[in-house]
From TrEMBL:
Gene name of the record: suhB2
Keywords: Hydrolase, Magnesium, Metal-binding
GO molecular function: inositol monophosphate phosphatase activity
Reactions the enzyme catalyzes: a myo-inositol phosphate + H2O = myo-inositol + phosphate
Gene3D superfamilies noted in UniProt: 3.40.190.80, Fructose-1,6-Bisphosphatase, subunit A, domain 1
PROSITE patterns from the UniProt entry: IMP_1, IMP_2
Domain of life: Bacteria
The protein's name: inositol-phosphate phosphatase
Species in which this protein is naturally found: Streptomyces cyanogenus
Length: 284
């Protein structure tokens, strides 16, 4: 991989020089730790965390370790907030409140799909500085699709610029919502307001791939009820840079540092975001 950040270099300059190195690190982690285990997982390579729907595999753990080493080496002084590291030590999450650049990593977003041999999973990496997502990488390894975004410079899928655009007039809005297997009764009640005329809600799969679908204009919106930054940071920037918007029920954009009024939505355009957020707000 290429050179590391210079002492006087800004994040913008680092990204201009090293985005390809980050992409290479993501692809190598997937090639080494994830794809060789896809549809080949042994029983001892799969564990439960908080329950039967909350799975973790050796691919998650080993890919995160590899990304932590490689991304940290690319940007000295940065820290990594990874899903599995936070599970082992929740204090790791506090780095999002600091001044150091933070790599937010979800090594396998959609672990349940991965375990079941479904290709609907991805690796998510976002670079955050002082609470602002500066760049993101969404890699669907089994589909060999890579989506990238740099704040102020657009969103791209395999080199093609993404523009979500408004939904077609007159049809129901398709909204992917928090999966019922991962929601409390209170969260289910908050989301139930979306089952109304003019909307067509469905349960979400991999959050990262749902965000990509919004950025591509293949999905109108998502409505989610949890805050974990590794699930949302990469996709939210992708949606923003494709022309979309995100809002919490408090009327503010979602903050990866936490403290959001939930649920929240991300949509292919601002009008759709306001419509979905307004419905969610009406249920409070």
């Amino acid at each position: 991989m290429g050179g590391m950040i210079e002492e006087t270099e800004t994040i913008e300059e680092f990204l201009a020089r090293c985005s390809a190195d980050v992409e290479e690190a993501v692809r190598k982690a997937a090639a080494a730790e994830i794809l060789p285990r896809f549809r080949r997982l042994a029983a001892h390579e799969v564990d439960q965390k908080s329950g039967p729907h909350d799975l973790v595999t050796d691919a998650d753990r080993l890919a995160e370790l590899r990304l932590t080493e490689d991304l940290g080496a690319l940007l000295p002084g940065s820290v990594v907030v990874g899903e599995e590291a936070v599970h082992a030590d929740p204090a790791v999450y506090e780095a999002l409140q600091g001044d150091a650049p933070v790599w937010i990593v979800d090594p396998v977003d959609g672990t349940r799909q991965f375990v079941h041999g479904d290709d609907g999973f991805c690796t998510l990496v976002a670079l955050v500085q002082r609470g602002v997502v500066r760049a993101s990488w969404t890699y669907a390894a089994a589909r060999d699709q890579l989506a990238t975004a740099v704040r102020g410079h657009g969103a791209f899928l395999d080199g093609r610029r993404l523009t979500a655009g408004p939904p077609e007039p007159g049809r129901d809005l398709v909204v992917a919502t928090s999966h019922p297997d991962y929601t409390t009764d209170e969260q289910k009640r908050a989301l139930r307001v979306l089952w109304t005329d003019g909307l067509a809600p469905r349960a979400c799969g991999s959050a990262g791939l749902e965000y990509l679908a919004v950025a591509r204009g293949d999905l109108d919106a998502v409505a989610f009820s949890w805050e974990a930054a590794w699930d949302h940071a990469a996709g939210l920037l992708l949606v923003e840079e494709a022309g979309g918007a995100h809002l919490t029920v408090g009327g503010e954009p979602f903050r990866v540092t936490g403290g959001n009024a939930l649920p929240f939505t991300a949509a292919r355009d601002a009008a759709t975001a306001r419509r979905v957020a307004g419905l969610l707000r009406s249920a409070r």
